[in-house]
Amino acid sequence: MKSPETHLTDSDRSALADWFGHHRRDLPWRQSKDPWHIWLSEVILQQTRVDQGLPYFERFVERFPTVADMAAAELDDVLRLWEGLGYYSRGRNLYRASRYVIEERAGKMPTTFSEWLEMPGIGPYTAAAISSIAQGLPHAVVDGNVIRVLARLHGFSEPVDSNASKKTLQTWADAFLNRDSPGDHNEAMMELGALVCAPRAPKCDSCPLSDTCIAFREGRQESLPVKRKKKPVPHYDIAVGIIRNEDAQLYIQQRDTDAMLGGLWEFPGGKVEHGESPAEACRREVMEETGLDVIPVEQIATIKHAYSHFRITMHAFECALNGTGKSSSSQPHAWIAREEFGDYAFPRANRRLLELLSQEPD
Ligand code: SF4
After folding, report:
1. Is 4 among the domain residues?
2. pTM (2 d.p.)
């Protein structure tokens, strides 16, 4: 499919730049052109609201002021700081890429778009954002905010999540890019999407591009962008065992680094199979994962949690150990006391369970 041309002009570019000059938020990553800080902010802010990501950015910059500081740390240190942000692969990739800079690039940051793309876990969006904002290179970003703005400006009625539409949107973004100040232009487009061209009730009356916006002219701004219908989100019942040794320490294990939530720690357990009760699943899963024979004696919590592609209900059982407490798991595992709960990174649902356990009387 041939990409349609954009109708946006130089004066639209100027209007956007002028608006950004007056309305840009004073965010901490905008006070620096340090590629490491821009990189951190871009990774933290993917799939995350600015108000939620801001304290994480500040903690990361304080703990890892340079890429070398992160590369010298352990993955566990990064995941502990990442805890609560979700999409943990971002934290793992950030850590891998920091090591890549030190080990494969002799500590030298990439200086071109294609060098950024060679880094583990960095795709076209992040490469364009860092190289334009930190290094002034002419690459247009296309994130969720920019897609919405461009789709409305062009009155684009195709589903924006198809491959053909993504190409069209990138072509429009490239054509509209202000090559004299690509970083500011990219930030302005994202800022316009965040502050004015919001998903619901866009503030077209205060938009610098309303004169040129096809959706606004046709009164279609609320119905764009179009997205393909989402499949229903699957739901799984999960059973986990709370197992204590004679010193009242709890058994936890670390997830495989390559798995979803990889590198995080959790209570042993797994999916409840068809025809199985949660207590039966708890006993079976604990045995399969750890070799420990346990008797689930009481269900102590039911926790619901939504991940990006599925939802879970976690059934947590207080378990009695039947036999020795010697785990045969090949995964890293540990017995931890209540005071050590903060020393390990846990997924959100497990952390909520730990919070309940912390409230138990001594
Ligand atoms: Fe978005 Fe309205 Fe501006 Fe169009 S006029 S870009 S719909 S805020």
Report:
1. no
2. 0.80
| 45 CA → ligand 1 middle, Å | 23
Atom of ligand 1 nearest to the CA of 213: 4
Question: Measured in angstroms, how far is the CA atom of residue 140 from the centroid of ligand 1?
Answer: 19
Backbone angles phi, psi at 17, to 5 degrees: -60, -40
Measured CA to CA in angstroms, residue 296 lies from 17, 319, 332 at distances of 62, 4, 23
The pair of structure tokens assigned to 209 is 């591009």
247/330 same-domain check? yes
CA-221 nearest atom, ligand 1? 7
Among 7, 12, 148, 196, the mutation site with the greatest number of ligand 1 atoms within 8 A of its Cβ is 196
pLDDT of res. 251: 95
CATH code of the domain containing 296:
3.90.79.10
In short, whether 193's Cβ falls inside 6 Å of ligand 1 is no
Mean pLDDT of the chain: 93
Residues 189 and 266 in one domain: no
Cα separation values, 341 from 179, 253, 254, 258, Å: 50, 13, 14, 23
Q: 242 by DSSP, 3-state: which?
A: strand
Cα 153 to ligand 1 centre (Å): 7
Residue whose C-alpha is closest to residue 43's, from 67, 11, 72: 67
Domain count, the chain: 2
What's the pLDDT tens digit per position in 231-255? 888 999 999 999 999 899 999 999 9
What is the pLDDT at residue 362?
Answer: 64
Residues marked as catalytic = 42
268, two tokens:
């042993």
Q: Which of 223, 244, 259 is the last residue of a domain?
A: 223
What distances in angstroms separate CA 184 from CA 19, 107, 243, 354, 356, one per listed residue? 11, 27, 54, 44, 46
pLDDT above 70 as % of the chain: 98
Distance 114 CA to ligand 1 centre (A): 33
Question: Quick check: CB of 149 below 6 Å from ligand 1?
Answer: yes
Residue-wise pLDDT tens digits, 63-99: 999 999 999 999 999 999 999 898 888 999 999 999 9
Per-residue pLDDT averaged across 99-128, rounded? 96
